[in-house]
Amino acid sequence: MNKNKKYRFNIIDVFIILTVVAIGAVLYFYMSARNLVASNQDVEVEYIVEFKTVHRDYVDNIKVGDTVVETVREQQIGKVVDIVVSPAYNIATDTNTGEMFIQYYPVLTDEESDLSAEAEPQYEYYNVKVRVRDTLKKTDEGYKKNAFVLRVGHLVYFRVPEFVGEGFCLQIDEVDEEVESGEK
User: Fold this and answer.
1) 149: which residues sit within 8 A by CB, 6+ positions away?
2) Beta strand pairing call for 67-70 and 75-87
3) Which residues of 18-54 are buried (b: 16+ CB within 10 A; e: fewer)?
4) Which of left, alpha, beta for 91 (phi over 0: left; psi -120 to 50: alpha)?
5) DSSP letter (8 states) at residue 61
6) Using an 8 Å Cβ cutoff, are 138 and 43 in contact?
7) In the list 21, 27, 107, 167, which could disulfide-bond 51, CB 3.0-4.6 Å?
8) How far is residue 166 CA from its own chain's centroid?
9) DSSP 3-state assignment of 162?
10) Which stretch of DSSP H or E encloses residue 172?
C-alpha cells in the first residue's frame, strides 16, 4: 500500500464546490428576501381567544361588534366577529385505571334552571371562544400592534364593555381580502 499518495484537485471538484456554494447563495437570498417582504406589513387577521369556565350569568355579556381592549396597555386590539359557547369541561384521570376522560361541569337541576324539561340542559359554567378581527403588523415575533404581541398560546387580557377576562390565543388566520369581498 502506498501511504504517501496525495490527493489531486481536479475540475470535477471545482464544479461540485461551485454548485454547493451557488445553491447555498440562492437559498439564502430567497429566504432573506421573503422575510423582508413578509415582515412589518400590516395584515388583516382574525384570531380566537378562549375563556374557560365563564359563569352562565356572564356568557351573554360578549357581543358581536364589541370593541376589544387589551387591559394591560389599554389599547384597542380589534372587534368581536363571532362567539362560540360550549359547556365547560376539564380533563380528569380515573385513579383506579389511570385513564383520562373529559368531565363536564354539573348540569343545573330543574329548580336552578329557567328552562322546561324538554329544553337543552343548562350548565353552571361555559367555555367561550371569541373570534376577533384587527389589522396587525406581521413581524418575526408574531403579530404586533404597538407593544401588544399576539402569538398562538399567548395569554390575552381582554375587555369589552360588559366583560373582562383573560384567555389564551388558540388560532390566528390572515384574512384574504379577495375571499372577504367575495371576488375570486
Assistant:
1) 141, 142, 143
2) antiparallel
3) eeeeeeeeeeeeeeeeeeeeeeeeeeebbbbbbbeeb
4) beta
5) G
6) yes
7) 167
8) 14
9) coil
10) strand 163-174
Residue with grid cell 362567539, as numbered in its chain: 83
- Alpha carbon dihedral 103, 85, 118, 90, in 10-degree steps, equals 10
Q: Is 62 exposed, middle or buried (0-12, 13-18, 19+ CB in 10 A)?
A: buried
Please state, in angstroms and rounded to a whole number, the distance separating the CA atoms of residues 130 and 40. Answer: 26
The residue type of 38 is: A
Per-residue pLDDT of 44-59, as tens digits, reads: 999 999 999 999 899 9
Enter the pTM of the model: 0.69
d(CA 129, CA 64): 12
- CA dist., res. 43 & res. 138, Å (int): 7
Among residues 181, 166, 172, the alpha carbon closest in space to that of 51 is found at 166
At 58 the three-state DSSP class reads: coil
Please check whether residue 155 is in contact with residue 165, taking contact to mean a CB–CB distance below 8 angstroms.
no
- Asked if residues 171 and 48 have their Cβ atoms less than 8 Å apart, the reply is yes
Query: Residue for cell digits 470535477?
Result: 12
CA–CA gap between residue 53 and residue 136 (Å, rounded): 29
* pLDDT reading at 25 higher than 50: yes
